[in-house]
Amino acid sequence: MTAAVSAVVPARPRPQWRRIARRFLHRPMAIVGLVLVLAFIALAVVGPMLTSDPDLQDFQVVLSPPSLAHPLGTDDLGRDVLARVANGARVSLLAGVVSTAIALVVGITLGLISGFYRGWFDAVLGRIVDVLLAFPFLIFAVGLAAILGASLTNVIAALAISQVPAVIRIARGEAMSIRDQEYVSGAIADGSRDGAIILKYVLPNAASAFIVQATVAIPAAIIGEATLSFLGLGVQPPNASWGILLTGAQQYLAQAPYLAVFPGLAIALTTLGFNLLGDGLRDALDPKGHR
Amino acid sequence: MIRFSLRTVGLAAITLVLASIVIFIGVRLLPGDPAQVLAGEQASPELLAAIREQFGLDQPLWVQYLRYVGEALQGNLGMSTRNNIPVTDLLLQRLPVTLELTALALAVAIIVGVSAGIVSAVKQGRFPDYVANGLGLIGLSVPSFWLGLIAILLFSVTWHVLPASGFVPFTTDPAGNLRGMVLPALVLGVGLSAVLMRQTRSALLGQLSADYVRTARSKGVGRGTEVRHAMRNSLTTVVTVLGLQLGGLIGGAIITEQIFVLPGFGKLMVDSVSSRDYPVLQGAVLLTVTAYIVVNLLVDIAYAYLNPRIRLNGGTE
Predict the structure, then answer these.
(1) Beta partners for A80?
(2) Hey, are the CB atoms on A246 and B145 less than 8 Å from each other?
């Protein structure tokens, strides 16, 4: 009986990764985005090993402009800006990737269950998500950072929690539309367990939406970390974070403008990279979409 | 339409009540004992107990919440622990600054974003489209606080054309007020105008390739009429995006006020976190969230008004 039903279960459509990759590689701007993102990751991973100690103070070279010895100049305590920007990249990468990963795991799990089963769980969770989305992202993050206290771990937690509601909403929508597909009804009729259906059918078919969401969430978290640190609610000095570097630069805008230029450029290029990558992935994964 | 509006208002009211509970509990979770903050570090246990009794802090949490909401509905949000002024007075003092800033930024965003989006869609694949797209991507990628610093560096420090800080009330000196608001409003408006430009472009492109536009074109209407019709149908997208992005604008205002030292709501909020002035923080967040919910409610209703399919189906999921 089961075998007979299985035979009529329609094949589930699989995303064709090779074709998607080819479409992606045909977009020059998407490749620029990928290069920028890879450069950022390289700066974060390898940069701190190649540069000097970011906390080393040298009062002989206080506020000196870019030179061969200090390619991005030095700050008010004579610390090397390049080393601090590289270290800031590490903080940004950590905050962006870890908080997004946590938000995706929690949000996808809750959202898929909610959209797949509907019922009371969906109603309750839907209400909670509505309430959390009633808080502007930054205000929510500022409030959480204030409750948790200022540190990198707490900033990551605050950013992850702030991103969860949006992910739940996306995952729920995906689960609802995929659940109505014939191949899922077929699998249900076939007697497959719900968990297996969600893992085997719903999750892979919703993957492209989650990948695109990650390219939106990571730069948002990177800017979020920099913003919280800039406001004094995130990473604390003397640790280097791009936001901290910009706070320090504020007082020396007239004497040492490069202090404000380089960390900000690093944030802007990283965010630009993720935006281009996200646009490219969206077009490659959904060629019929907008444009 | 009335049934739809009532349903939407009801849902928004529930969201607001639940949000107020979240804020209330959130503030109670903040580090530090409110009685200790009021009485100072050296306070005796007797004084602390007296303060707890006076402010009802010894009552169960739900009693405290109901009392807070009851007072809030009468316009009393408690006293600032830092400078002993009613929170409501403090908020009303700061509100005009933030309202002016966000209104100007919104105007910048709508004028720049929508017109760039229209030009970009009409000239699709040509030079103006590339320029608008490139600028849009840059606008999306540059964090507002960095843009603020660079704007100060160029316009105030280097060229001395606009002030970097210092707020003058509009009623005292209108010209001085606007001069001081130019940079903050531009900085805050850039991100939103980039989002609006992209959304207007893609909505308009979708409409321009729709059947009714093709029919109109085959009947020989001019390009201007064509775009006008298509734009009217793209408005729902623009309105929705505006509503969705409002939170970003409020968040951006916090940073912008911090950089340009504007005595607004955002600065008040950040200062109240650092000085542990929790009644002020609670009042400011509550008012912001209320405003955000009300604006989104208006957007929902406007959206249904512009798009009859929504209200006839009883609303979106």
Answers:
(1) A74
(2) yes
Query: B33 in a domain, yes or no?
Result: yes
> Alpha-carbon dihedral of residues A132, A135, A138, A142, nearest 10 degrees?
-80
- Whether B51 and B149 map to the same domain: the answer is no
As to burial, measured by CB atoms within 10 angstroms (0-12 exposed, 13-18 middle, 19+ buried), residue B28 is middle
Encode burial over A195-229: b for 16+ CB neighbours within 10 A, e otherwise: eebbeebbbebbebbbebbbbbbbbbbbbbbbbbb
- Are residues B103 and B29 located together in one domain of the fold? no
Residue A94 lies in a domain: yes
Say yes or no for a CB contact (<8 Å) between B251 and A137: yes
Q: B102 with B187, same domain?
A: yes
Q: What is the ipTM of this complex?
A: 0.82
CATH of the domain at A159: 1.10.3720.10
Q: Residue ranges of the alpha helices (H) in B154-173? A: none
Encode chain B (317 residues) as per-residue pLDDT tens digits. 788 888 889 989 998 999 999 999 888 888 777 777 777 778 888 888 888 887 777 888 889 899 989 988 898 888 887 788 999 999 999 989 999 999 999 999 999 999 999 999 999 889 999 999 889 988 888 888 899 999 999 999 999 998 888 788 888 889 989 999 999 999 999 989 998 998 899 888 888 888 888 888 888 888 888 888 888 888 877 887 887 788 778 888 888 998 999 999 888 988 888 787 888 989 999 998 898 888 888 888 887 777 776 666 544 43
Nearest CA in chain A to B137: A272
User: The pTM is what?
Assistant: 0.85
The residues with which B79 forms a beta bridge, in sequence order, are B86
User: For B32, which residue in chain A has the nearest alpha carbon?
Assistant: A147
Contact A260/B138, CB-based, under 8 Å? no
Q: Which of residues 201-240 of A touch B (CB under 8 A)?
A: 219, 223, 226-227, 230-233
* A62: in domain: no
CA A135 to chain CA centroid, Å, is 19
> Domain range holding B166?
96-263
Chain A CB within 8 Å of residue B133 CB: no
What CATH number is given to the structural domain containing B169?
Answer: 1.10.3720.10
B149–A246 CB contact, under 8 Å:
yes
Closest chain B residue by Cα to residue A144: B26
Residue of A nearest to B209 (CA): A291
Report yes or no on A18 lying in a domain: no
The answer to whether residue B314 neighbours chain A at the CB level (below 8 Å) is no
